C-alpha cells in the first residue's frame, strides 16, 4: 500500500504534519521582527477575489519648518505625506516522488523522510527569495539608495570585516536610527573571520538525545546572524592582485511586509499505480509576498504574474517608494536595509 493511497491518506493531515517540522531560518527572521506579517493585505487579496499584485497606501511622517510665534508671523499649515507601495506575489511549487519498489527492497518509508525535510526545504526557498530581492533593491540608484546604504571596505588595506564594521555600516545607513537593524546574512568566509576575532557566537540546540550542537545561527553585536553562502560574491582585481568580495546584508525591524497568500491546494498527494510499478507523489505549492520596506515592485509593460529569481534580482524591477505627488521619497534613514562589501 502506498503512503499516499487516496483511499487511506488525508492530505490535510499531512499538511499539518509538515508544519510541525522546525523552520529554522524563517523562524529566526520572524522572532527578530524582520518579517512583519500583514493579514490586512491578505484580506485585501481575498476581498478582490485573488490577484498577484497589490498597491498598498503608506502614511508618512509630519514635517516642515517650525514657525516663529511672535505675534506678527502668519501660521501656515502643511499636510502629511502619503506614499503607495507596489507588492508582488511570489509563487513557487515542488514535487517529490517515490517508487513502491523502493519500499519493497528496503522496507523503508522514504516518503516519511521527505516529509520531515519539507519545512527546512521551504525555509531555504523563502530565504532565496529574500536574497534575490536584496540583490535587486541594492541595484537601485533612485535617491542614491545603493550608495547611502552600502559600506564598501574591500578596497581598504586588508578589506576584511572587523569588530566595528557592523556598527559603522548601520550608522552610515540610518544615523541615530541605527538600532532598527536586527539581522545579518553573511557568507561563511565572513563568519569565519569574525569567529577568529571571537566576536561571533553561535546559537545551540539540544537534540532528542540530549546532545547539544551548534546551528547555522549566531549573534554579532547583538544581531542575529544567518550564514548562507548564496549571498553575492564577485571577483575583483587581476593577476596576483585578484581577490573575492563578499556581500553581507543587514536587515532591520519590519524590513519585509510578509503575507502568506496561500494556494488553492497547498499540499496535494497523488498515486500512480502503473508507472514504474507504482509511485507516490507529494506536490506542494505556496504563494507569498516578501515586500521590502520602502520599495515598490515595478511591473514591466507585460505584467509579471510571479517573478522568477532573475526578475527579483533585476534593479529595474524596483524603485524607492515615492509620495503621491511623485516628488518625495520614502525617508532614507527609515529604510531598514544595509550592506557591507568586504574581502571576507
Structure overview:
The chain is an alpha+beta fold and 344 residues long. It is built from 9 helices and 17 strands. Strands 5, 6, 7, 8, 9, 10, 11 and 17 form an 8-stranded mixed sheet that branches. β7 (200-206) and β8 form a beta hairpin. α1 (11-19) packs across α5 (110-137). It is globular. The model is unreliable at 1-9 (pLDDT under 50).
List descriptors.
344 residues; 8-stranded mixed sheet; 31% strand; globular
Question: What is the SS-derived class?
Answer: alpha+beta
The SSE string, one letter per element, is HHEHEEEHHHEHEHEEEEEEEEEHEE
Show unreliable segments.
1-9
Main sheet overview: 8 strands, mixed
Query: Distance N terminus to C terminus?
Result: 53 Å
Q: Which term fits the overall shape?
A: globular
What does the radius of gyration come to? 24 Å
What is the average of the pLDDT values? 84
Residues in β-strands, percent: 25-35%
| Number of E-state strands | 17
- Please tally the helical runs, counting DSSP H or I stretches of 4 or more residues: 9
Estimate the helix proportion, in percent: 25-40%
Summarize the structure.
With 344 residues, this protein is an alpha+beta fold.
Please render the helix and strand layout as text.
Elements: H1 11-19, H2 24-31, E1 35-37, H3 39-47, E2 53-59, E3 82-88, E4 90-99, H4 100-106, H5 110-137, H6 145-148, E5 150-152, H7 165-174, E6 181-186, H8 188-196, E7 200-206, E8 212-220, E9 223-227, E10 233-236, E11 243-252, E12 256-260, E13 267-272, E14 279-292, E15 295-297, H9 309-312, E16 318-320, E17 337-342
Helix pairs in contact: 1-5
Amino acid at each position: 500500500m502506498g503512503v499516499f493511497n487516496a483511499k487511506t491518506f488525508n492530505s490535510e493531515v499531512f499538511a499539518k504534519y509538515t508544519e510541525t517540522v522546525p523552520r529554522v531560518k524563517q523562524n529566526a527572521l520572524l522572532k527578530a521582527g524582520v518579517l512583519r506579517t500583514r493579514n490586512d493585505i491578505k484580506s485585501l487579496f481575498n476581498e478582490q477575489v485573488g490577484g498577484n499584485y497589490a498597491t498598498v497606501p503608506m502614511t508618512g511622517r509630519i514635517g516642515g519648518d517650525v514657525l516663529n510665534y511672535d505675534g506678527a508671523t502668519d501660521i501656515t499649515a502643511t499636510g502629511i505625506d502619503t506614499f503607495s507601495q507596489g507588492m508582488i506575489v511570489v509563487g513557487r511549487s515542488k514535487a517529490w516522488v517515490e517508487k513502491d519498489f523502493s519500499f519493497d527492497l528496503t522496507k523503508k518509508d522514504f516518503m516519511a523522510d521527505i516529509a520531515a525535510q519539507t519545512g527546512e526545504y521551504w525555509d531555504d526557498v523563502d530565504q532565496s527569495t529574500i536574497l534575490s530581492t536584496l540583490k535587486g533593491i541594492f541595484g537601485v540608484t533612485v535617491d542614491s539608495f545603493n550608495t547611502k546604504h552600502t559600506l564598501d571596505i574591500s578596497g581598504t588595506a586588508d578589506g576584511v570585516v572587523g569588530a566595528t564594521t557592523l556598527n559603522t555600516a548601520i550608522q552610515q545607513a540610518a544615523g541615530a536610527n541605527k538600532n532598527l537593524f536586527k539581522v545579518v546574512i553573511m557568507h561563511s568566509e565572513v563568519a569565519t573571520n569574525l569567529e577568529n576575532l571571537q566576536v561571533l557566537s553561535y546559537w545551540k540546540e539540544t537534540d532528542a538525545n540530549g546532545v547539544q550542537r551548534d546551528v547555522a545561527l549566531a549573534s554579532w553585536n547583538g544581531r542575529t546572524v544567518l550564514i548562507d553562502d548564496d549571498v553575492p560574491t564577485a571577483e575583483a582585481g587581476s593577476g596576483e592582485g585578484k581577490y573575492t568580495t563578499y556581500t553581507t546584508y543587514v536587515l532591520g525591524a519590519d524590513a519585509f511586509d510578509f503575507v502568506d497568500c496561500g494556494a488553492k491546494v497547498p499540499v496535494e498527494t497523488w498515486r500512480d499505480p502503473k508507472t514504474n510499478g507504482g509511485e507516490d507523489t507529494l506536490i506542494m505549492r505556496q504563494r507569498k509576498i516578501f515586500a521590502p520596506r520602502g520599495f515598490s515592485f515595478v511591473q514591466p509593460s507585460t505584467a509579471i504574474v510571479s517573478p522568477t529569481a532573475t526578475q527579483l534580482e533585476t534593479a529595474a524591477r524596483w524603485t524607492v517608494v515615492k509620495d503621491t505627488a511623485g516628488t518625495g521619497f520614502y525617508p532614507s534613514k527609515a529604510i531598514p536595509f544595509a550592506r557591507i562589501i568586504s574581502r571576507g
